[in-house]
């Protein structure tokens, strides 16, 4: 049975046995990693004890995995490790500030693994007074300590960490830069976000992805050019993240700026690869739960879609016509009008909605509105007949308006 299967089946004791008895370092490391998923297991006490022992291993890989898993387990797991390694007596019900004080003392320990554990623990206590002490460890000789200190500073989110974290963005270790970038994104003030802008060109793909992902938190158009550049990144994950950030950015900027920024984005997107932009946009429209994101996405799809992804976009926009959000329905309708085209696909899909009596009248009305912009003779005849047959005032009113744009009644 594989280690994954042991974790999936909840066999904590077997993973503990492998962690303690295996001669294979990779097996022990992986067992330590998986045990971090047993936070509510009946054998939690045994899991914590085994990880505390493993955290004092001679192997850096096993030690690091064990400490990370203790961090994942939460509660008193890291506290127990600190007590075991440093001889500090921390009771379960000790106040957070008491624990934080002990952790800050341990940050100066000679053993790097103990400094790692202390840094991890401070990130879970949300004690802002710990930030200056964590910042001292940004220059720790051990990159694992630097990374964990940066991560914990980001969890606490105190702005005092911003300037020290900026210096970590040039760390020679990519893993440390990733943690610093993620921390600055979590802090999210203007200085932190500004510091992340140059990282869209970092050598490490994950650093670029983290930085680009934070750009959506800006409240202005400062990162637009950087996000457009990121749409050409060699990494598909970075390109996808850039699209999500663009939509998030449009949702965050003031309303009076959003229209101008949307136009700027559309203009710049016209020179990028269509598929790298459209596919993530469709996913946002179909999967996001944020109204502002979906509205901006629906609007943009009508203006950045080329022939390759046109069919899929039309289907998604047609589905959006049935959404509960009236503004989203309007944006979807205007984008469908933009995508009209000579192949009559939009017209055919909309006519199916218009002719279906089981569809909500408001949705049919939205489809009729769009037909007034993209329809032809077939639409004119259908709406002409519908005016006389429908029982719904909203459908009749929309049909009158649309048919006037298509040449009038026969």
UniProtKB/TrEMBL annotation:
InterPro entries the record matches: ARM-like (IPR011989), ARM-type_fold (IPR016024), PBS_lyase_HEAT (IPR004155)
The keyword Lyase appears for this protein: yes
Domain of life, per lineage: Archaea
UniProt keyword annotations, A-Z: Lyase
Entry-linked Gene3D superfamilies: Leucine-rich Repeat Variant
One Pfam family here: HEAT_PBS
Segments forming a coiled coil: none
SUPFAM superfamilies, per the entry: ARM repeat
MF (Gene Ontology): lyase activity; oxidoreductase activity
Protein name: Phycocyanin alpha phycocyanobilin lyase
Species this protein is from: Haloarcula taiwanensis
Source taxonomy: Archaea, Methanobacteriati, Methanobacteriota, Stenosarchaea group, Halobacteria
């Amino acid at each position: 049975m594989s280690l994954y299967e042991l974790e999936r089946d909840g066999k904590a004791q077997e993973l503990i046995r492998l962690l303690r008895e295996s001669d294979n370092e990779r097996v022990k490391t992986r067992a330590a990693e998986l045990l971090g998923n047993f936070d509510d297991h009946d054998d939690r006490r045994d899991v914590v004890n085994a990880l505390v022992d493993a955290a004092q291993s001679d192997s850096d890989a096993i030690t690091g995995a064990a400490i990370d898993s203790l961090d994942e387990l939460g509660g008193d797991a890291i506290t127990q490790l600190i007590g075991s390694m440093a001889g500090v007596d921390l009771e379960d019900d000790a106040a957070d500030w008491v624990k934080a004080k002990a952790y800050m003392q341990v940050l100066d320990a000679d053993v790097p693994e103990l400094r790692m554990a202390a840094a991890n623990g401070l990130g879970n206590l949300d004690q802002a007074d710990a930030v200056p002490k964590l910042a001292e460890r940004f220059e720790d000789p051990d990159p694992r300590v630097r990374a964990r200190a940066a991560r914990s500073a980001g969890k606490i989110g105190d702005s005092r960490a911003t300037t020290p974290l900026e210096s970590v963005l040039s760390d020679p270790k990519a893993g440390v830069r990733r943690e610093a970038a993620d921390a600055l994104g979590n802090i999210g003030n203007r200085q932190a976000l500004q510091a992340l802008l140059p990282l869209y060109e970092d050598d490490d793909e994950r650093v670029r992805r983290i930085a680009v992902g934070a750009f959506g938190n800006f409240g202005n158009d400062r990162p637009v050019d950087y996000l457009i550049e990121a749409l050409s990144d060699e990494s598909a994950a970075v390109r996808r993240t850039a699209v999500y950030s663009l939509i998030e950015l449009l949702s965050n900027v003031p309303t009076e700026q959003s229209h101008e920024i949307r136009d700027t984005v559309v203009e710049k997107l016209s020179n990028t690869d269509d598929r790298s932009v459209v596919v993530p946009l469709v996913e946002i429209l179909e999967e996001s739960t944020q109204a502002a994101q979906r509205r901006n996405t629906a609007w943009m799809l009508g203006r950045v879609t080329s022939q390759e992804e046109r069919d899929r976009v039309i289907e998604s926009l047609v589905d959006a016509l049935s959404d509960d959000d009236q503004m989203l329905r309007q944006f979807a309708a205007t984008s469908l009008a933009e995508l009209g085209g000579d192949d009559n696909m939009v017209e055919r899909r909309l006519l199916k909605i218009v002719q279906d009596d089981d569809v909500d009248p408001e949705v049919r009305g939205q489809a009729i509105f769009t037909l007034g912009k993209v329809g032809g003779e077939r639409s004119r005849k259908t709406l002409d007949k519908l005016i006389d047959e429908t029982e719904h005032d909203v459908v009749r009113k929309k049909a009158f308006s649309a048919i006037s744009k298509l040449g009038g009644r026969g």
